[in-house]
């Protein structure tokens, strides 16, 4: 996928590192994350905010599989959001994590907490993808858009892997008659 140019600094920027920034007149500008943050910092007065780009890191999950995580730090008014995510091509796919902090928070401290959260998640497996069954009695994941379902059925991402709603249903049928509880949580909450 071609890189687009940030309309502020003119640098070619990967799609995952761009933000559509609305302006007062209803128009949108494509900005790189750093230019987006600089603009928010200027308009909100949070000039202490550390506008940094964090290098990707590699982590190994409990099955021995390697995952490369990219980071995006965004200033959102008086708070900051730190996202970690994997890429497929240039698009976000697989594991995703988020932490929210105060705008003047130490970014490296926040990063440390996020990496701990990622480690905890990568140390647990919920689905045996070879046997196509739920390993224990808990499944944690993320609800996503399924291109093939036109918004009628979700795609869930469990253990960093996509599982169709049908496949999840099939796995649940080995527990027919059991009870379940469905909890929905904000992306930054720990499940
Ligand atoms: Zn820029």
Automatic annotation (TrEMBL):
Pfam families: DUF7685, DUF7686, DUF7713. InterPro entries: DUF7685, DUF7686, DUF7713. Signal peptide: none annotated. Residues 133-189 form the DUF7713 domain. Residues 5-46 form the DUF7685 domain. Residues 50-123 form the DUF7686 domain. This is Uncharacterized protein. It comes from Trinickia dabaoshanensis.
């Amino acid at each position: 996928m071609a890189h687009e140019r940030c309309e502020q600094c003119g640098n070619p920027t990967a799609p995952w590192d761009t933000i559509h920034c609305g302006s007062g007149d209803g128009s949108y500008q494509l900005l790189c994350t750093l230019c987006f943050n600089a603009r928010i910092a200027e308009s909100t007065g949070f000039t202490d905010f550390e506008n940094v780009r964090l290098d990707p890191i590699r982590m190994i999950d409990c099955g021995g599989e390697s995952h490369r995580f990219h980071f995006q730090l965004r200033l959102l008014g008086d708070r900051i959001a730190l996202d970690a995510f994997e890429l497929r091509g240039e698009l976000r796919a697989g594991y995703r994590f988020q932490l929210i902090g105060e705008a003047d928070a130490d970014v490296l401290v926040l990063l440390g907490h996020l990496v701990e959260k990622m480690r905890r998640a990568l140390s647990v497996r919920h689905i045996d993808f070879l046997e196509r069954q739920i390993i224990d009695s808990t499944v944690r994941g993320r609800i996503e858009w399924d291109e093939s379902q036109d918004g009628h059925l979700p795609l869930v991402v469990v253990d960093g892997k996509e599982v169709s709603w049908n496949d999840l249903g099939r796995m649940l049928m080995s527990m027919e008659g059991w009870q379940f509880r469905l909890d929905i949580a904000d992306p930054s909450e720990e499940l």
